[in-house]
Protein 1
Amino acid sequence: MSDPFGSSTLRVEQPRRGPFARSQYKVMEEDGTLLAVADETGERGRAQKLQTYFPGKSELHGRAVLLTTPDGTPLFVVDKEQGRMLTTVRSPEGEVVGTFRTERVGRRYVLHDAGDEPIGEISVDLARNNFVVADTNGKQVAHVRKKWAGVATHLLTTADKYTLTISDPVAEPLRTMAVLTAIAMDMILHESKDIT
């Protein structure tokens, strides 16, 4: 499988688990065929685990997920640094593919390539449920929609569901960054389950 994300419509889901669960995601085709899984890398220390027990600022702590094929072949690492300002996508060998840089928290993010050149941006609606990915000319190349699952699910579990539609053809590395937008935005904006 040379391009596991070749489809123009994908689903990204975070399994329903307690609010203190590790970061996990599934990337699927529209029909539910599993393409990749992501799980938090490394072990968290006791202080980091305790920080997740108290709502309010857990999204400010750094975390990274390793995205692999279902058989375990590494694809990418999505690494959200402490705070909300920088999330880096790396190859399994550690080479930077691109970055999500916060321009306005919760509203606008600029995408950069490995050479730190801007390649696009993400605009976010007020509810933080719709993410429009555009190239540097302002042309929409992808749309990510977060499904609202209700207050109890939002506040008490990690369950989030996203639909990604890509307006192919989209050049690399912008296409990869567009595919990983749901995971990056979830880590930056939604994972803590804060009421903001």
Protein 2
Amino acid sequence: MRQADAIRVAVLDDYQGVAAGLADWAGLGPEIAVDFLREPVPRAEAATRLAPYSVLCLMRERMPLDAELIAALPALKLVVFTGGRNPSVDVAALTARGVTVCNTRNGEGGIATAELTVALMLACVRHLPREFANMAGGRWQESLGEGLEGRTLGLVGLGRIGARVAAVGRALGMRVTAWSPNLTPERAEAGGAELVTRDALFSESDVVSLHMVLAPSTRGIVGQAEIARMRKGAILINTSRGPLIDEAALVAALGQGRIRAGLDVFDREPLPADHPLRGLPGTVLTPHLGYVTQSTFRMFYEDTVEAIAAWRTGSPVRVVTA
């Protein structure tokens, strides 16, 4: 089949260049031409760059697909995004255009995110990035770390991930507290934490960790007032979504040395090279690694290939509706 006659598929934001090797794309047949795009497509170029593709494969929320962009992609017939939900995709606009939308299974993302949360917490209290750099640079120890036993871990949100972090906190000998708008004492106890007020959580915790879904009601849920209540030297961990925190207030507090932070998520991703967070003291930054594990990505891409194959037969699987 000529390339011009092929169904063109774009696998977007394949940062690590692993998508091709984690699923049997060739099994889709010679009529499917797949392009793996490692670099993010800038919004200003998206309509032109993506116009030739009938199928877009999205990795989580890395590439927003809103109504304006959808309208500029007349060839689009199928969108597959990884994970169970993707608020960055306008499913209603796609459905109105007659575009099929499918998702994948979640994989071990929740487990892996909880593990990364604990890793960031430990990296902060033991100054690990600084000491890694010392060893690589031929130097020796320069910092004094802290223990976590007897300290207070405050969880903003106590769902599946928050409860896993609570279990590790208790294993480390920490007092674990929690707050969220609808959390009850019974649910807090079942999740392994003590329910406290919002003000108490921020003022009493040595480590505050966020585990909330981003929604209009939770955007900026950690603002200037909450950050101001935190103890001097306390640690704020965010492995959920960047906009849960008022970024300007966070940058100001970090710049003053009032608090420390372990951050895996940001308002803008990828985080710009000149972003002020990159140069602030007391920060441990990772590039949204929470769900990024080999087994999860293998499931993501195998499910993506399955979704394309099923769509081709007229029997799509895991269809998402508005």
Protein 3
Amino acid sequence: MEELNRTLFLWINATPQSAAWLLELATFIAKDLIAIVPLLIAVLWLWGPHRGIRTLVLKTGIALLYALAISWCVGQLFPHPRPFAIGLGHQFLSHAPDDSYPSDHGTTIFTFALAFIFWHRIWSGIVLMAIGLAIAWSRIYLGVHWPMDMLGGLLVGLLGCLFSQMAWPWYGEPLMKLLHQIYRLLFSLPIRKGWVRN
């Protein structure tokens, strides 16, 4: 498996001969495209087409918390150096030489993609999955992650969604009610003005 991981990495990883425009595009995708996650959370909560969409936002947020917790535990149990930390391939994105498995970026975006597939619409999940694959490619291409780091992020995201779905009947509705109360208190003026949804 490790040999396959290295072979795939070297096949995807950029080289000094790679086109400058492609390196710039990969850098944008690797660093900035993940911002779609908090942006999506805010937009759907504040201006979602119906109040039920907030259930999706909350379940997805909980899934992400589970996924990141699992990711941290896996990283502690199975530490794995980044490619540049062992001198393999070429690095085009500055990054601390910490453990790489599973990828936090991969875990985050794949958790969201899977959540939207399971709890929203297939098409929205597929769009997010495509973004996730682009982020995964870019971080491998720039030399800061292994392919298996991204596969690990996908699997951890799947577990996060599973745990969120299983735990929702226990605390989902009370938590949603509490968050609505806090939201209405903090956003009372924008709600009255009609700037955001009630």
Protein 4
Amino acid sequence: MRLYLLGISLLALTFAFSACGSPEQADYQVPAETSAHDDFFANLQALCGETFTGQSTFPENEDHALVGTQLVTHVSECNDQFVRIELLREGGDYWHGAWVVERRDEGLHLFHDHLGEVRTMEELEASGDSHGYGGFASDAGSAVQQFFHADDVTAEMIPEATTNVWMMELDLDNDRFIYYLERHEAPRFRAELFHHTEEEA
């Protein structure tokens, strides 16, 4: 009888320990799933401080300000809300300004900042340049590639750019950054830039 009661007690203890689990198990939290937008933003953040150099691969028209010249991008500023990528052309003159990839309540957003380092909004308006156009990433992207479709601000600012889709791709295996723009489902601009190291300077 005592053996029977002992067996019952041990069985009860076994169930009690199983229910409580180990301290490690009790503290374990299942990681929240991340979206492709989050993963892409994290990959972009990881490039903070890095520089890429290259050139356009489309179009061939050298009247275009960014064609036929070396392009330099520098991932200059990063935080939990945005990543800023400066764009300069050969000679160091500040032309395009920057690409800003930002996490907004509505989703991942690409913003074209034409202010540069010295121009004020008044100077920008006097020059007639566009500033602030861009769009939100669709669901078609991945951790290394995103497609940003022109938003309402862009459509109002530049009506002909309503169908614009900007693509950014991080070719991590080959240290390559690709920027591509199409309009009306036709290529408009494409550039390939490769990771630039101090040894290459």
